[in-house]
């Protein structure tokens, strides 16, 4: 079975993920911890417990807006009373739901 690999968001190096006593951790192919060797390392997030950045918030808002527009666009094919101003109302409701979860 092949080990799962990903690309580091900071330095673009390919990394391997291994289970350790401290949880799942990234390693280089030479076996050293990627956190110790990454030259462009940013502070890692601990499974979503860190506060979201402004960039994260913008990405979330745009994703919710796109989802609301897509949903209402499909709904408008069968309901004539759907209007473009409904997109922002629905997106705001969905964003409130996302923020509380």
Short description:
The protein contains three helices and three strands; from the N terminus they run βββααα. It is an alpha+beta fold and 101 residues long.
Descriptive notes:
This protein folds into two domains: 5-37, no CATH class; 54-100, no CATH class. Helices cover 42% and strands 15% of the residues. The model has no long low-confidence stretch (mean pLDDT 83). With 101 residues, it is an alpha+beta fold. A hairpin with a 6-residue loop joins strand 1 (5-7) and strand 2.
| Radius of gyration computed on alpha carbons | 20 Å
What average pLDDT do the residues reach? Answer: 83
Beta strand % = 5-15%
The computed structural class is alpha+beta
Number of helices: 3
- The arrangement of helices and strands along the chain is EEEHHH
Task: Pick out the low-confidence regions.
Answer: none
Largest sheet: 3 strands, antiparallel
Total strands: the figure is 3
**Separation of the first and last Cα atoms:** 35 Å
- Shape descriptor: elongated
Whole-number total of structural domains: 2
Relative helix content? 40-55%
Task: Strand order, main sheet: write it out.
Answer: 1-2-3
């Amino acid at each position: 079975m092949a080990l799962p690999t990903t690309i580091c968001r900071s330095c673009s190096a390919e990394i391997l993920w291994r289970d350790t006593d401290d949880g799942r951790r990234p390693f280089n192919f030479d076996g050293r911890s990627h956190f110790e060797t990454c030259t462009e390392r940013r502070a890692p997030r601990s499974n979503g417990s860190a506060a979201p950045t402004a960039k994260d918030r913008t990405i979330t808002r745009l994703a919710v807006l796109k989802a609301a527009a897509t949903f209402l666009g499909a709904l408008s094919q069968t309901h004539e009373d759907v209007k473009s101003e409904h997109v922002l109302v629905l997106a705001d409701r969905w964003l409130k739901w996302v923020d509380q979860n």
